[in-house]
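Late entry, evening session. Most of the bench is empty. Finally got around to the prediction I had been postponing all week. Sequence below, unchanged from the version circulated by S.P.
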Amino acid sequence: MSGFPAPGGCALPGLPAALDAGFVREVAAPALLAPGSSVESLSLDCVRCSSPDEAVVGWRLTVHEDGGLRPGYLTLRLAPRWRIAREARRLAPRVPAGGVLVLAGGDALALAFPLDRVLRELGRTLRRARAELVRYRPEHNAVLRAGDAFVHVRAAPLGEVALTATAIAQGAGLRCPRIDGAAGDRVVRETPLAGRPFAGEPRAARAVGKALAALHAAGGGGGLPRRGPIDELDATLRACRELAFLDEELGARAFLVAAELSGTLPKNAGTSTIHGRLACDEILVDGEEIALRGFGHAARGLPERDVASLWIDIWSQDPGSAARARDALLGGYGKELDRRDLHWCAANAALQSAHAPFARARSDWRARAKEIVRLAEQLAGGNEP
């Protein structure tokens, strides 16, 4: 077994096999590999299980083939048997020999990368660009590297939001990757910038704070959607429902925090241009300079939202350094933010991220989710973690 505890709300009969490393190594993967190939190593990469009758499990593979090693990926989709059978028939015209297999008595559909049930352009893009896989979320998005550029293949098309917000950020003097794509494109080329992902270090955090202040003060955000406190709370309630599906007790605690937050809504509706989903990997650090990317969730909203979401992301990686990083962010920001609204936004950001350890296939996901809910409880109560 992978050692990954299944969620309480998912009783799909094929799920135990999909989470079993021995089954994947000995049955699923060999059936999809070319003759003479074998699995050198494998690791559970992602799990998505947000309803009682549907789940997706992703495995990263290292495949021994033609005397060398190559990366591989196997997706196992779980659903009722009638749906698995229908999807296998629909995929058949797109499948190279050995690319798809119905397993576990008809309870699972195994797909060998780059075949994806939703990302129809993935295989064609991979061949044309002669690219290699960087990051992959089955049925959602893939990031490929082709020479000096990154190619994003998305389930949802690139919207006007990303293009508009990137232009606003560049107009405010911020470094951002150049996007070669138009609204409606599902395959987008991004010119990369030098730098490493932000890790919460105070010196870089001050530069990030300064950049956020420039973004939040920038005009031209009239074309962006509004994301006020009610929208934030709606997102939190959706996250609570997902968490309750994974663990009923944790979900109940999360709903209690959300109820408390609903009674303390910020009075400021928020009209600043915000990134909307700021995390460490959306920030690149290159010496004294930083760059922002990933503006697909940009909006007009509370500036505290960006600081709070980044603070919670730093906390999730290193709780001991989060307070110092937050103080450096605020110091670089240079303007007074409402501390009460900051805590309110941080509590929401924490609850919205409570399912992330499960999605990232962490074997300790339940313990990590408990820590995140506890953090949200502290923040909602006005306490410093």
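Two things to note before I forget:
The chain has two domains: 1-117, 195-380.
The longest strand covers residues 38-51.
Will write this up properly tomorrow.
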